[in-house]
Amino acid sequence: SDGSIRLHQVTSEYPLMQWNDSTNGQPVIALKWAITRPAVFFVLDASSNIYIWDLLENDLLPVAKQAVPSENVVTMALLGEPEKPNGLLGIALAKASGQIDIQYVKKKWALP
Predict the structure, then answer these.
(1) Share of the chain above pLDDT 90, in %
(2) Cα(68)–Cα(71) distance, rounded to whole angstroms?
(3) 40-45: strand order across its sheet
(4) How far apart are CA 30 and CA 12, in angstroms?
(5) Largest alpha-carbon pair distance within the chain?
(6) How many CB atoms lie within 10 A of CB 62?
(7) Cα 106 vs. chain centroid, distance in angstroms?
(8) Is the separation of the CB atoms in 76 and 94 below 8 Å?
(9) Which contacts qualify for 3-7: CB closer than 8 Å, 24 or more apart?
(10) What is the mean pLDDT of residues 51-61?
């Protein structure tokens, strides 16, 4: 609820990494690991901002932030085929109105 993100290992109750205030204090609505690239994850906050984290590029801050204009996004899901080397990765965004928006991620964050 405070925008903190913690990375845990299943064998320990203590986080391996913790990023405080990672969304400028906005609650985290959803967090999804990329299905085509293990070091990348996406965070959706309550202000409809999407943060892209690539732990191989920067493990302190997100590598990109994208605002979704005009309407509240209530959840997200990732689309892709990890068994195919094309690196196609999409984000399905569900808006409060019931509309679904699909955006594709740049190849540098999607390629295995």
Answers:
(1) 62
(2) 7
(3) 28-33, 40-45, 49-54, 64-67
(4) 23
(5) 42
(6) 20
(7) 13
(8) yes
(9) 3/27, 3/28, 3/45, 4/28, 5/31, 5/43
(10) 93
By the 10 Å C-beta count (0-12 exposed, 13-18 middle, 19+ buried), 11 is classed as exposed
Domain extent at residue 41 = 5-109
Give me the DSSP letters along 53-88: EETTT-SSS-SEEEE--SS-EEEEEEEE-TTSTT--
pLDDT digits over 85-106, tens only?
777 889 999 999 999 999 998 8
Q: Can you tell me the distance from the alpha carbon of 68 to that of 46, in angstroms, rounded to the nearest whole number?
A: 11
Say what the pTM is.
0.88
Q: Give residues with Cβ within 8 angstroms of 110, minimum separation 6.
A: 34, 36, 37, 40, 80, 87, 88, 89
Q: Is 28 left (phi over 0), alpha (psi -120 to 50) or beta?
A: beta
Give the SS3 label for residue 94: strand
Alpha-carbon distance 94 to 33, whole Å? 17
What the block records as the tokens of 106 is 């740049």
How many domains, in total, are found in the chain? Answer: 1
